[in-house]
Amino acid sequence: MQRFVPLIILVLLSTVAEAQESTEADPPVLTVGVPHEGEITEDDPVIETETLRAGYSNSPVRGKTFSIQVPESGPYHIDLKSYFFDAYLVVRDAIGRVVTEDDDGLISTHSRIVAELEVGGRYRVEVCALHGKSGPFELVLREGLPGVLSPVERNRLGIEEGREAVRRVEAVRGRDHPDVASALDSLAILVEFQGLYAEVRPLYERSLKIREKALGPDHPDVAVSLNRLAHLFHSRGSYAEARPLYERCLRISEKARGPDHPDVAVSLTNLGSLLGSQGLDAEARPLLERSLEILEKAFGPDHLRVAPTLNNLAGLLESQGLYGEARSLYERSLKIREKALGPDHPDVATALSNLAGLFYFQGLYGEARPLYERSLKIREKALGPDHPDVVIPLNSLAALLVSQGLYSEARPLLERSLKIGKKVLGPDHLDVANTLNNLAELLRSQSLYGEARPLYERSLKILEKALGPDHPHVALTLNNLAFLVKSQRLYAEARPLYERLLKIREKALGPDHPDVATSLSNLAELLRSQSLYGEARPLYERSLKIREKALGPDHPDVASCLNSLEVLLKSQGLYAEARPLYERSLKIWETAFGPDHPDVATSLNNLAELLRSQGLIGEARPLYERSLKIRKRALGPDHPDVASTLNSLAVLLSS
């Protein structure tokens, strides 16, 4: 992880330094401007700091020590480069106290410390190799502040350094040495971050092959390679390829570590999260619960390592509509991170966003907004205003504002997010594609179709180029573009988009996945708009059947599907068939979200519309009035949905 290293002023009292004169042999002196080449071996002493003990406890961190005395006071920077290990620097004062330390301050896995050094001050620099590794290194002390690279240039140079590391390790160790696998993994991470997805898979696959050959098929390091490759497939929606790798990784971990080892918990969490992505909640939940039990037993219920699994289990429960259970887990995860990391850590920001997302989905906008805003503030402070991780809370907060109809507040957030993505990641990165999609959604919500369409199309082009035309991640933007075209009544253009979307999801996810149900409903809605009721109805009914089976009969997504089928039946004048569906969907919304959720208001409005169509004015009016009251309170008096309900109520009263 790249991390900003602040300028540290190192001012030491000469009397203290003299009082703590070491009896040991003085370490070699690092001279300004003169590179020092050395090598860390397994015989070097173990280096310890509080940070190293907390974050790198799996293997001993060994290193060499150098002393520094500068000719004049001023700013200096110390660079440590190695292509054979993940570099780490520690600077201590004359009495051995850690003044500053750094992991990834330079490019790639190299390290850099920037400091203000005083003439007469006595400093020691410890050159460390993380993760139990060893090998050659180059260390240099330079006067002045280092040049500042743009994020794009930094990323480009990082990949170049990663490629150089692979070449150098191959030359020294041989092409099939496990150290080559480590270098390949490091390069793959850099390449994936830059969105060069076609290059990532062969790097991980070669790394896996090297480790299997050198270490045997059941070595824990083989499990590491399996996990990374599986995660790549998982994140790209290739679930069928990911599952056997996660399962094999779990078997290796259980065999090598025992059934209750924390590494087994990690494998369980990864496999459980994958199954949840496939809608296989009944298989996923026991895996996540077992993972949580292992971690709580190993570390205690309030340990930092428990928090991610709490979060994953909460996300699964949220998808099942178990919002009360999900909320308690999200809140517990947040509390653990705040206590362990402090209130302003980026991981706290992640926990805040997750809890805010639950509130947002429940229509609790007043509770969600301050959490999103705090998450954004934390990341800006910790990472800088132009860090790519700032894009996440910007997009989330903007989506919330769009839902509230606060378009003028949402647009600058999305435009800022887009600017950051282009600057840091480049114009063809997946995160840029996602922001383009979100900005297009905002414009579509304002009926600015001419501005929205080219953004959707550009987003789609980036996704297709990066992932291929049939990738599940292509489906979301494809769906939104199809909806835009449908909104413009360009039905002949919309239908092939919806049909392509359905085909992608059926192939990637299987015929009974909830996302397939969504695609069926969207295609059916298009057909209904064209009065093709005979074609639309079986699609709605299949969608409803999938959701009831996958999610249960009382899930909110079932209510959404019921609502769509209701509208179709109403359009055909089949009021007697439609009314029980309206009433059932209303009951589901109220049970799931409470009586004052915006979706309850929508359901009330739809039922009122049905009753008005039947001339049942007395039954329709209180439903409109209750819908209006909910929408005003939840969305504000100037939201378009409030205006819609006011208009419907006015039409009712005039009739």
Q: What can you tell me about this protein's structure?
A:
- A hairpin with a 5-residue loop joins strand 6 (87-92) and strand 7 (98-102).
- The longest helix has 23 residues, at 151-173.
- The chain is built from 26 helices and ten strands.
- The termini are far apart.
- By secondary structure, the protein is of the alpha+beta class.
- The strands form two sheets. It has a five-stranded mixed sheet, with no helix packed on it. The protein has a five-stranded mixed sheet with strand order 2-4-9-6-7, with no helix packed on it.
- It has helices spanning 14-19, 50-55, 151-173, 178-193, 197-215, 220-235, 239-257, 262-277, 281-299, 307-319, 323-341, 346-361, 365-383, 391-403, 407-425, 430-445, 449-467, 472-487, 491-509, 514-529, 533-551, 556-571, 575-593, 598-613, 617-635, 640-654; strands at residues 8-10, 29-30, 36-40, 62-68, 74-81, 87-92, 98-102, 111-117, 123-129, 135-143.
Please describe the topology of this protein.
Layout: E1 8-10, H1 14-19, E2 29-30, E3 36-40, H2 50-55, E4 62-68, E5 74-81, E6 87-92, E7 98-102, E8 111-117, E9 123-129, E10 135-143, H3 151-173, H4 178-193, H5 197-215, H6 220-235, H7 239-257, H8 262-277, H9 281-299, H10 307-319, H11 323-341, H12 346-361, H13 365-383, H14 391-403, H15 407-425, H16 430-445, H17 449-467, H18 472-487, H19 491-509, H20 514-529, H21 533-551, H22 556-571, H23 575-593, H24 598-613, H25 617-635, H26 640-654
Parallel strand pairs: 1-8, 2-4
Antiparallel strand pairs: 3-10, 4-9, 5-8, 5-10, 6-7, 6-9
